[in-house]
């Protein structure tokens, strides 16, 4: 039989092992190149609507969160492996089996940008039949969009950054390219690249959104972060200042 002091040590060790993972500083990964929703500034700091939501949570809870802007592909990989959370995450059937989700942080509208003089009537996904559409590597634009790609309705051309995607569009290598938050999002991308900015009048945003895209914070189910997510949800409800894209 163990003496009382040893039992005490075992008790506290069990308590520590049973402590939820958010007792330590939580890491949240996000896209470093998806302006104006989430991106990395010139100092390497996370910015955008998603970052504002995390900062409000810190003020609300008194907890410190480590934000890590990186490529979306890497952020998603790290999140699925349980290395941290991922913010700006859309919901799909596949992802619902992997992640626990927060409430909606921000509802974004995804639009299509085209070359001036190359516009076309767009109302539904069927209007994209046979076209080459530039999309963000690793991103999902909803189950309907993903299914249309798998069924071969149109072809998705992936790029790691918005700048690469719009350069392809400028050179006539795409029929259209996705941009977040319409004209505001397009302008934010153009400002980051001298060539694109010099040709800003060559781009047109189609009027109808490609998809309305609610964005969330997610953690791999293996991390057991539902308590943290519940507190994050409380901070969203307590925020009296609506989250907005800054022009």
TrEMBL record:
Keyword Endoplasmic reticulum: no
Keywords: Signal
InterPro entries: Solute-binding_3/MltF_N
Claim: Ion transport is one of the keywords in the record: no
Transmembrane segments: none
Matching Pfam families: SBP_bac_3
Residue ranges of every copy of the Solute-binding protein family 3/N-terminal domain listed in the record: 25-242
Signal sequence range: 1-23
Gene3D superfamilies in UniProt: Periplasmic binding protein-like II (3.40.190.10)
The protein's name in its UniProt record: Transporter substrate-binding domain-containing protein
Phylogenetic lineage: Bacteria, Pseudomonadati, Pseudomonadota, Betaproteobacteria, Neisseriales
């Amino acid at each position: 039989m163990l003496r009382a002091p040893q039992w005490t040590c075992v008790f506290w060790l069990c308590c520590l092992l049973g402590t939820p993972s958010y007792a330590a500083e939580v890491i949240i990964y996000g896209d470093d190149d998806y302006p104006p929703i989430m991106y990395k500034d010139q100092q390497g700091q996370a910015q955008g609507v998603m970052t504002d939501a995390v900062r409000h949570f810190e003020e609300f809870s008194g907890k410190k969160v480590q934000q890590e802007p990186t490529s979306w592909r890497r952020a998603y990989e790290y999140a699925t492996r349980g290395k941290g959370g991922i913010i700006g995450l859309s919901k799909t059937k596949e992802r619902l089996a992997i992640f626990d989700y927060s409430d909606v942080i921000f509802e974004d509208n995804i639009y299509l940008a085209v070359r001036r003089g190359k516009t076309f009537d767009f109302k539904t996904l069927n209007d994209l039949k046979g076209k080459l559409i530039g999309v963000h590597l690793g991103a999902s634009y909803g189950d309907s969009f993903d299914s249309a790609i798998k069924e071969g309705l149109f072809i998705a051309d992936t790029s790691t950054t918005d700048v690469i995607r719009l350069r392809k569009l400028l050179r006539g290598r795409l029929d259209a390219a996705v941009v977040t938050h319409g004209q505001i999002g397009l302008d934010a991308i153009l400002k980051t690249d001298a060539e694109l900015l010099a040709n800003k009048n060559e781009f047109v945003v189609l009027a109808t959104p490609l998809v309305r895209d609610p964005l969330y914070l997610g953690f791999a189910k293996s991390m057991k972060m539902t308590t943290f997510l519940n507190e994050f949800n409380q901070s969203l409800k307590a925020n009296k200042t609506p989250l907005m894209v800054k022009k």
